Amino acid sequence: MFIEQFKHIYFRLPIPARLILTILFVMFLFGWIIHLVEPKQFPTFFDGIWWAIVTGSTVGYGDYVPLSTAGRIIGILLILSGGGVITFYIAMFSAFTVKHEQDLSEGRVEYHGKNHIIFVGWNERTKQLIDLTLQHNKKTDIILIDQSLSRISYQHIPIHFIHGDATDDSILEKANITEASRVVITADISKDEKKTDHYTILTSVAVRGNNKDVPIIVEILSTNQIENALRAGANTIIRPNDFMSSLLYHELFKTKSKPFETILQLLASNQFHHFVLPENLENMPFISVLNEVKKNNYLLIGIIRGDNWKLNPPADFILEKKDILVTIESW
Q1: Are 116 and 142 in contact (CB under 8 A)?
Q2: Which domains does the chain have, with CATH numbers?
Q3: What's the rounded Cα separation, in Å, for the pair 281 and 273?
Q4: Cα 152 to the chain's mean position, in Å?
C-alpha cells in the first residue's frame, strides 16, 4: 500500500523534482552500502554519502577511496549508475531552462505575481504606454495579453507576455487577473471600428466577470459604444478619435499664432478620459464637479449626455445621473 502511494506521488512530480529525488536516493544508498562494506575507510554514514556524491559526479577528490575488491566494485557501479543519473539531470536541467525561456517568449507561461498591470492588445500605443509605465513605475510588473503576436523577447521588452484571446477565462487566469491592480484594453485602429469596439466590450465583460473590483481602462473608437463599455464594467473610457479630430480641425484652420500652437502641444501631451458621473456628484453644478475631479488631477472640459456633447457648459449647469465626464489627465 505504501509503495503504491509513493509511486502515485512520485510520478506526479515534475521531471526535475523526480531526478533530484532519484539522485538523492542513489547517493544515500551507495553511501550507506560503502559504509557497511568498509567501515574503517568510511567511519560514518556521512563520509559514505560524501564519497558517493564526489564519485558519482566524477569530481573525485580522492580523500575517501575504497580499498577492498567489494568496495571498488561498488565504486564502479556507482560511476555507471550515479554518474549517468547526474549527467542526465544536468542535461535535463539545461533543456528545462531553455524550454522555459522559449515558453516565456512565446507566451505560454502563467504569471503568479500580484498588483500587476494587464495590457490587452499590442500596437504602437501599447508600446508607448509600456515605456511610460516602466519609466515612472519601474517596480510594477506588466502583463501583455495578445493573440496576434507569436513571441516577445523578454530581454528587449521586460514584460510578461501571454499569447491568447483576452475574452477567454483561461487566458485571463494565466495573467492572474484576480490579483491585478488594473487592466488597460487598447483598440486596434487597423481593423473595423465596430468589430474592434465589440471585442473591447467583450473583453471588459470577461475581465469584470473574473475580477469585480479591478479598474478597467478601455479605448473606444465609436461614440455610440461608450455606454455599452460602461455597462460592460469599464471604469474609464478613452476616445482617441475625438482628440485627434479636434487637433486636425485646428491644424486645418490654424493661424500662424505661436501661442495657439503651444496650446496644441500642451494638449497633445495629455489624454482624453471618459468616465461616468459618480453618484456623489449627481445633481451638482458643473463648477462644483470640476473642482472635485481636479483633486484627482483631472481637468473637466465637458460632458456627454446621450448622444450630445456639451463642452465647457455654464458654471451653474446641473449634471445628471448617467452623464459621462470628459476630462484631460495631466502627468
Answers
A1: yes
A2: 2-105 (1.10.287.70), 108-238 (3.40.50.720)
A3: 17
A4: 13
